[in-house]
Amino acid sequence: MNWADARLLDSLTYDLVLADFYRGQNRAQINDLANGVPPYTESEVDQNNISVNVNDLSMTRLLHDARAQFTNAFQKPGVFFNCVTDAGPVHKRSEWNAIVTKGIGKRMKKSVPYFESMRSKFGLLTLHGISPAIWQNPDRWCPKPLGVEDVLIPSNTLLGFENLPFFVVRRNFTAYELESLAMSMKRDKGWNMPLVNSCLKWADTATTQLMGNNTWSEIWSPEKIAERRKQDGTYYPSDQVPTVDAFDIYAFEDDGEKSGWIRRIILDAWSAPSIAGNTVTADRKSDMPEGTARGGEWKKSDFLYTSGSRKVAMTWQEIISFQFADLSAVAPFKYHSVRSLGFLLYSTCHLQNRLRCKFNEAVFEALMMYFRVKSQDDVQRALKLNLINRGFIDETINPVPASERFQVNTTLVELGIKENSQLIQQHASSYSQPNTPAQHDKEKTKFQVQAEVNASQALVGATIQQAYRYMGFEYDEVKRRFMRENSSDPEVRSFRAEALKLGVPEKYLCADCWQANPTQVMGGGNKTSELMMAEGLMQMRPTLDPEPQRIVSRDYILAVTDDAAKAEMLVPEKPARVTDSTHDAQLAFAALMQGDDVGILTGINHIEYVETMIMALAKRVQKAQQQGGMASAQDIQGFQNVAKHIEEHIKILAQDPEEKARVKKYGDALGKIMNLVKAFAQRLQEAMKKKTQQNGNGGIPPEQAAKVQLEQQKGKVKLQQMTQSHAQRTAQRQLQFEQQMKQDQQRHQAEIAATDLEAASKINRGRMASLDEE
Questions:
Q1: Is the pTM value of this prediction over 0.85?
Q2: Cys bridge to 338: 3, 129, 686, 693, which one at CB 3.0-4.6 A?
């Protein structure tokens, strides 16, 4: 298709507008009934002499219940989605996941525009089953909600949009908005500035006329025009100022080198004939923007904006977000075949409203007093009767008894209202709980209640899961925009600065490294189902491990209170279970203190390993210091053994240039601990010396006695190591001997075979020689 021809795009766009007109009429009827508009039109009231014409708001109430369930399903958790990464060191991922998830979630929860965007989504989902939202620029993370009528999609487009060639978004630019977009410091070069200036000039002229400013002394003074725009800046975005209506067209194009979505903006010539229409008179042509369609004549260059061949997005998810709650029963599911809760409720609620109006008319009629009269004089006498407490009736006035009046079949009316109410409740049961009392005296059992809730949940489950799935696409785009480097969005810049400060490396703050998983609540937003699930988990809680018990407790508090902050406050997050690296360090520490040899492990978190070792060593040394500052020779030897082991792991960490500060920190901490160990050794030598002097030890100096004891301990460790080494060498020699014997045997068999072959050859040659002699 030729996307460079504005006339062709204008024709194509209005084909979509005309096709959507009749769908819009159906949506308008659903909107009116939901907004409380009476069921009878004014013409029907006049023609049929209808006295009661009110809306009972049953559909409005049910739609509010449905919105509440969507709100509970999406807004209740502490964060909208969890960010998970599979990049970087494994031992750092959980920490980074928490930092990124909390950083993005905090800003999304505090955003009022996003809160309103979500409310718009839920309202449109329940009313029409479709909820679009568009991103205003490549940097801003919060999408702007749109009405269903604002997005024009070609017919036969499948849900999922795999066959979507293009789509159109209605735009209504105020002069302020258009000027901000087209004349900003970082404006896109695709704006047609002559046409933009013409539109701004037209809007300015219309605005001055609305303001009653008929003086044109400023027409030759651009400075005064600019100053007036600044002074009246609050008026220009107001409702009184006309907007520049346009169609924002996005089309998928594959030029063979790069595929993506291009963008065009054309003026809505039919909706704003005073700007660019086909019904403009000759005397109004001077008011229209130059270069636009005049009298219905378009030019190929009449684009308010064009990206040319440049792709503004790789996927449609980078431009617009769609949320669906489709209750259609016919597949394949298409965009214009979506059926919502509002569609399912409309017919029955509309019929119920009319029935209630007739019913109330009958009630009012039953309350009236009728009299038989023969003349107008009888009418006047009847009107003068006062029948409040006591009264007298002229014999000429004959009241009509109830038996002679028209009787409404109350049983049939009640049956009709009851049947309609049941139909409405069945349609809405997937979104709200029935509020009608039970018709039987026997109380329902827990199993019966659970069965009813499960049946209701089966209806809503598919819809909520569908909504979660489509919301995941929006969350992916929000996550991508939060990861955008050099973004102009202040909240994105704040998040990136915070994440970097908390230790997330900049190279991992990219969208490809992260996945956004929507946070789902139990029961899919159904309060009764959520409480039942929470109670079931609480019954299983004693059989779970400690960490899952905390999760169950937190979920139960959230289900009861609907307050994520309170659940977090009462059951705060704690570190996960003991990691393998920590557990290995604890086991190795005990072995090292006994003088055993522990090998250097690979493929572990050396940071956790070293920190666990240092903490355990410091704790044991502190304990010795609290016991009089003395330690046994075996403990001192164990301390030295542990320190040597820690140094080996610190050397492994030192191979990473980014861990220099950490290595120095560990070295300083280990040095301070070993200074205390040296002090223990000195005190032990002094104690041995004193003991020798008291008991007499053959003149052996105490220093030498302490050294002897230390050497004995070292000797034991060395002997154990030599024993292990000797056993290994013996096993290796035995293996080598067996291999040598096997090789010798094979060599011997080969030599025997060669000798036998040579002897056989000689015998054969002898026989041949004897035959030659004969």
A1: no
A2: 129
